[in-house]
Amino acid sequence: MRIEIKRFQELDAQELYDVLQLRSEVFVLEQDCVYQDMDYKDQLALHIMGYKNSKIVAYTRVFKQGDYFKEASIGRVVVRKSERQYGYGLEIMKASIEAIHKNFGTTSIHISAQKYLTKFYTSLGFKVVGEEYLEDGIPHVGMIRE
Length: 146
Known about the structure:
It comes from Arenibacter algicola. This protein is about 25% helix and about 35% strand. By secondary structure, the chain is α+β, with helices and mostly antiparallel strands. The longest helix is centred in the N-terminal third of the chain and has 18 residues, at about 15-30.
């Protein structure tokens, strides 16, 4: 998988469309969750895109400290369903962590994780903080990596 990192202003129309399509495919259709994906936070984020054969198959958006949480953060972590068996989730998260270190100069990262993915994020050094909560009707937990 080839990784590209771009600021919102650097995304071309096709890239933005492909990112929004993937997020909608997984978060709205697959997870059956009606929510407002376009939240005016994309403009603040760095967009981490994973390509396979020129098609976006994995994606996250990352924020500097104070833009989403007190700490830097990673969100909208997504891998196309047909591509999940290849370890792209791990690759895109490692690239996102590295992008935060390189671009924002911090090691403290806060995420809002879907509860069923706690073990996955723990393998990347995240630890659960606080109680479970519902976000858009899906159980989540706060997690921090120092």
